[in-house]
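ASSEMBLY PREDICTION REQUEST
Request ID: AP-0331
Submitted by: J.K., bench scientist
Number of chains: four
Total residues: 1124
Priority: normal
Notes: Please return the full assembly, not individual chains.
Input sequences:
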Amino acid sequence: MAYADDYTLNELMVVAASRELRDGDLIFIGVGTAGRAFTVAVGIPIAAARLAQETHAPNLAIYWNNLLSPDLSQIPPRLTQHHLTTWPTSAQLHNCSDKNDMLSRRLFDVSFDSAPQVDRYGNLNITAIGDYRHPKPRLIGCLAQTDHFAYVKRPIVLTDLKKRTFVEKVDFITSVGHLNGGKSREEAGLYPGGPWRVITDKAIFGFNEKSKEMEILSIHPGVTLDQVLAEMSFRPLTPDSIPSTESPTTEQVRLIREAIDPNHILLVA
Amino acid sequence: MAYADDYTLNELMVVAASRELRDGDLIFIGVGTAGRAFTVAVGIPIAAARLAQETHAPNLAIYWNNLLSPDLSQIPPRLTQHHLTTWPTSAQLHNCSDKNDMLSRRLFDVSFDSAPQVDRYGNLNITAIGDYRHPKPRLIGCLAQTDHFAYVKRPIVLTDLKKRTFVEKVDFITSVGHLNGGKSREEAGLYPGGPWRVITDKAIFGFNEKSKEMEILSIHPGVTLDQVLAEMSFRPLTPDSIPSTESPTTEQVRLIREAIDPNHILLVA
Amino acid sequence: MKSKLVSMAEAAALVPSGSSIAIGGSIIRRSPVALIRELIRQGKKDFTVLAYPAGFTTDMLAGAGALKRVEAVYEGLFQFGQSYNFRRGVEAGVIDIRDFSEVAMAARFRAAASGLPFMPTDALLGTGMAANNPEQIREITCPFTGRRLHAVEPANPDFTLLHGYIGDEYGNVQFPLVRDADDLDPVFAKGAKRLIVTVEKIVPHSEILKNPNLTYIPHVWVEAIVEAPFGAHPLSCDGYYDEDEEHMYYYQACSKPGNFAEYADRYIYGTKDHWDYLAKALTPERIFALSAR
Amino acid sequence: MKSKLVSMAEAAALVPSGSSIAIGGSIIRRSPVALIRELIRQGKKDFTVLAYPAGFTTDMLAGAGALKRVEAVYEGLFQFGQSYNFRRGVEAGVIDIRDFSEVAMAARFRAAASGLPFMPTDALLGTGMAANNPEQIREITCPFTGRRLHAVEPANPDFTLLHGYIGDEYGNVQFPLVRDADDLDPVFAKGAKRLIVTVEKIVPHSEILKNPNLTYIPHVWVEAIVEAPFGAHPLSCDGYYDEDEEHMYYYQACSKPGNFAEYADRYIYGTKDHWDYLAKALTPERIFALSAR
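STATUS: Completed
Returned structure:
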């Protein structure tokens, strides 16, 4: 197993996300808009899932855009409605109750979420910045991101590190993470669990087992701790010795480029 | 409009039931087993619905055996599974939640029910005779008959008059009628309504507006009050002057024989 | 995706005596009869059966002395009459029974499918079912309207046993487009803890991919899938074959007077597996006569 | 059966200003856009919109100053970006907003469809949505487990507006077999008080009878049905046509800087009916380019 010298940041993020996926996992992938938001919400997660299928997790399945177990070896050339409607898949969950019930029955192992605000305890805000009744700006609402954090076993936040994104406390709790830390999540009546990893363009974070504060697990090759901290409005837990994020292997890079996203449908920005 | 001289008791019951149906009604017809039970639970109600469509209620629709608005001009030659599966119908309500939701949302106007025990206040028992935990005999359960009496606006009980059927008090309340009379039904939390008519082979009953006791509305031609009371374990309210049940017209009899049930699929016993 | 295709004997072996089992289909349609026969053959017993309308399979378990309790909306054999083995058990106090109306029982399965600890319903107000079952039916008050309601407990069986039409080895199971009611099979499947499905035919995965809108049981819900042609016989499988009236009359002729053993010796204990059963219960001529055409 | 076929103008005339309306479809798919355009043309306003994910139609109502309140899981235009007219209204405090997660909003529509006065859910525990909406989200305790839950109020809009595929004059509406998600359209329809459906095509009743399993809206639920080819344009109608990207970019080019009036003058107030709209918004070449093939 040789590590690659030549890889993009997106490829590193795909590989990092892929390593968090286990064989047999059922993975909920959300929807993204366009450009970077699409790459982060959809492109990297789908590529990571496919990479995991091709390497260590052949029995992993995804749910995306009403498709359960779409054939990831047949990613369509464009993602307009008709291509989605006709993508070969094991099941088109046209009855949205099926997806909602699968969420609330806790059948999903992993979800990928991104948000304009993430706080120290992994709470997310995609609803409103500032005063909820007079926000600036009003954001997109909730979608299923609330449900992901309520029910999914190992939610992964995948978002770029930015000072205005990583805030001490979210203005509005759309998705309950570890709430106020410690046992506060369970005390509010939620299932144990909560966000598992935060994968960014500069570093990967987890949550301290006891305090539930965000803590750095690894920093990407070539990035310094100061550069990480400069993009955060709070100081995460910082172990004395921080490993470097494992680089992609040459085989992983080859798979991404040749088999998974040769037409640049997924990693668009 | 000429009354028929020549008609069967089943034809009289079909016509009597048909007269209770109104244009635009949505009617729930249950399932029956075989022989007389089938005729009473299924045959007479379907024939009545069709007769109403052909006469005064062209916009009436039925739900029967998962079929919503089956084409009653195309009643199949037999009622085995495959004939039911392929009966032309507006909607095959294959999702049983649709039927249940239509019930609990109170979308049905009329239901037809029969039972081995009916009491003075129109409560039904199709579950158990005697002690519920050691019944003799155990009956068939509940089906949707509970739901009919809870939600349908004008349930019609259609059953033959028998002393062991028309009892002072049912051994077990499967379907809540007027419970203990007066306002007791509403006080138990149920919607107003409850059973509307009881159509039997000897007489037709309603329920007193105030006391909610069963009362005789009409007695079939050729039957005496004593013959009616002899087949009941309780004495229903008996007005001083009891009309005779209106006979079928020659046109109604013709429709039943020539258009509705020429092959004797419905009125089998 | 992992293959979940197993033999009927292997599937039945997964289900221990004493389990609670939801049985799909309805009275005399599309129940996993071959799987129930195999459970009886393997000597499994003490089952709690959850059904929507129960029917033939429940009565067979009662006849075999393998039935401890039933929670359902109906027990009987529709045009073939009473469920005699079941009735005798209830009348003797040997089989415990929990009655629910269709709306209420469906609410219980919906609660399970949604992972909810209860479902509200107003279907059972004033009934004998509520009066006799305070364990599973409790009075609550609507926090918005103040209306009196019941909470019903979710239906959470240990195993869910269904018979379906076509499926692939991974456990994706599809409907035919022309069909009768699905009963609560899709809801049972969605709420299942451990789901075993028998199907008329195993098809290549590529066939499934062609009509993903017909997949009502996606592979991720399934633990084991078994190929069992005529797996609902003597019941019907809508779109595939009709109920076998002759066989049902024979079943009732045995069951009514208490001779279920005669039936069982011939068709359950006297057959070593599903293929042997089919050989004894059907002729080619009969197969063609019953098949939907 | 009674014919319920009416014109678009007649259908829109049924809906008074101030109504609460559930709008079907999802963001940029299969919403009754032509009907919403007609509501705006008729000067109707003060609407409360209930949706699953809201999208283009809600943003048009906001742009037209006809939107008072939204209850939904999302507001935006997916790959076309933000819902600018809506956002400005919320930021200015002109549009009231009630946020729900997908599981919670679906529970509200399910409650309505089942005629229940509330639905339990554990999706909103600890969230800002619950903290800000005690009117519709109340804490309850499970009578079986003692677990803390919320009761959510049913979604009971005055009118339900859907766009569908084919239907007959009586109001029976059918799916195509190959399609994307139904969103909550079937649940919306089932729970509707007054249901208006626009469809791509009115077909003879005899066509409906051929595939009754594809009927997702039976005639008994429907008050009015309208034929509206490309009735979801510029959105997609899965199986029929794709979203019209050029049109959407123009819409956003107007809406982002606050020039919705330019768009509306051209495509809503500047067109006298749906046919006139189609003539102005589409060419034959464009129709063929967008059509699913």
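REVIEWER COMMENTS: The longest strand of chain C covers residues 159-167.
SIGN-OFF: pending second reviewer
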